[in-house]
Amino acid sequence: MDEATIFCLTYSVTPVLKDAVESGKINLTAIVNTHHHWDHAGGNSKILSEFSKLKLPVIGGKDCERVTRTPKHEETFKIGQNISVKALHTPCHTQDSICWLMEDGDERVVFTGDTLFIGGGFIEKYPSNPGTDCTTGCGRFFEGTPAEMHTALNKTLAALPDDTKVYPGHEYTKQNVKFLTTVLQTEPVKKLQAFAENNQQTQGKFTIGDEKASDPKLLSIEYNVFMRVDDPTVQKATAKTDPVDVMGKLREMKNNM
Question: For the whole model, what pTM was predicted?
């Protein structure tokens, strides 16, 4: 992946970004946002002002700060010469949520914002500001429904190739895996917990295949309870069987943890 052609931006990176651009380490061509919450798109105006000569497009959901382009669901475009980008609309956490599948040759990654996180735990770090609610598993349903999140996770994102590396919008796996262990006690979950304990960063270390099961009977590779709504163990923990009802109950359990 040619990382020099794109930078994922938030409100606090401008000084670092400026040094990287001026030193020639990156070729800044666009601002790309996953949704409109301030910790994901709140720095757009400042960055546009700092790099006004570059005339950067702001690519993101319709409610993102200073947005200039909102691609349609599954619309593709190029960033730089090599990176192919596909917009995957995943409304629920916010109605303008978009996950970005990026491919460069045989390498592919997906930037999931606050839609998909690693595993299944939960922490509400800043309860007074809904834009900063972060989870491993999935984000809160601030502007959507369990049915929408079920579609986002188990239809849209689950359809990606298993080797797609996942880059969530926040890194809280170490704390958040605690919720996962209240629902599942399996060897893969224990390995995930150990990995989070021993690594500060988990972004890009896990794939879509790790989050879901290619075969519902092969549960050993799956970490994310929100992508296991058909699993009898998860259904038993929620006392629900309908996938959408399981999704809603899991979110309720996490909210109350």
Answer: 0.84
| DSSP letter, residue 136 | S
Active site residues: 35, 37, 39-40, 93, 114, 170
Q: Is 67 or 203 the better-scoring residue by pLDDT?
A: 67
Q: Give the pLDDT confidence of 120-175 residue by residue, as tens digits.
A: 533 333 333 333 333 346 888 999 999 999 999 999 999 999 999 999 888 767 76
- Residue located via tokens 């919720």: 179
Strands 58-59 and 31-32: parallel
The residues, any chain, with a CB within 8 Å of residue 184's CB and separated by 6 or more, are 120, 225, 233, 234
Virtual torsion, Cα 90, 108, 134, 69, nearest 10 deg: -50
Contact between 96 and 36 (Cβ < 8 Å): yes
Task: Taking each helix axis as running N to C, give the angle between helix 173-183 and helix 243-255, from 0 to 180 degrees, rounded to the nearest 10.
Answer: 120
CB atoms within 10 A of CB 175: 15
Distances from the Cα of 161 to the Cα of 93, 102, 106, 133, 152, angstroms = 23, 12, 11, 28, 15
- Cα angle 244, 226, 115; round to 5: 100
CA distance 90 to 98: 5
Instruction: Please state the φ and ψ torsions of residue 150, each to the nearest 5 degrees.
Output: -60, -45
Measure the CA–CA gap between 191 and 187, rounded to whole angstroms: 6
